[in-house]
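Run log, item B.
One chain of 358 residues. Sequence copied directly from the ordering sheet:
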Amino acid sequence: MRAILLNPGPVSLSEGVRKAAVSADLCHREPEYFQLQARVRQDLLEVYGCSEQDWAAVLLGGSGTTALEAMLTSLPGRDARMLVIENGVYGERIARIAEIHGIAFEALQFGWIEPIDFARVEDALTGGGFTHLAAVHHETTTGRLNDVARLAELCEAHGAELLLDAVSSFGAEAIPFDSPVLAACAATANKCLHGIPGLCFVLTRRSALASGAQPPRSLYLDLALWLDKQDQDSTPFTPSVNAVLALDKALEELRLQGGWHARHARYTKLAGRVRRALASRGVETLLPADDSSCVLVAYRLPDGMTYATIHDRLKQWGFVIYAGQGKLAAELFRISTMGDITHYDMERLLAAIESVFQ
């Protein structure tokens, strides 16, 4: 029985992606690899229709946090001042990265279950002298989809650039690439794009990166170095070759399936089926459906049931779910509908829910 991962990445892979990951042994200094690299970079831009004249996809080895740290350390200049939006674990991670690297910042904190108060954001931007605003798009701590289009409007009004953690939204949610203030977004191969772990990327405006940090704050995480080499059909360090092979196939599958709009619709449909099944057994969602991403939904633990009990019983059926994080660990479990989940898998999942929560 195939294990179905219902955690927010890594995901259950299609057979095509799994085979592509081990389809060839490539030296990363040979023309065959550079053709692959160029194709994947171009296909990443095409997911949201980004112009290659204005935008660049920079591939990096590592998790989504690698891309996030590279973006945050490379784009803000040495005299930058950043406003960080915190309403979950990953917003707090942005602040921690800025703190470690000595980037001047101020954190605007909201409760983990609260939406962003945009009046507070505007007040902060009005008098704070901020050059950048950094925020999480899909805060998987709670499943909340933050309104980044509204944040972009506020940044535009107050002359700040937007740096977006799109690790858990790229490929399935709308991202405001048409906004002139969106400078870059960080993402990963192994979530909504259905690739394998070990590869991440930053989509950056070329102009924004050109005016970034000098001297660099990091060697390996210097996006300008990676971009310069990748534009020349080269690479500064050994890349995640097998993960690039897998992402090449995953992007082809995304395109054939109708692109990010179709993926959004599919995730929404699957998440709705899970939500209704759990609701019929008295399990409540943490957030209203309109506030949640299509990618993941957080549920309150029913009275008398622990996360360990639910996890272990569903795993016996072949499904792996996710615990709550931090201070919500004792209150929540989370279910994502990313990855290669078939109709048969969904029918088994609904049967498993009926059995576990009866």
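Observations after the first pass:
- DSSP finds twelve helices and 14 strands in the chain.
- The chain has two domains: 4-9+259-356, 15-256.
Flagged for discussion on Thursday.
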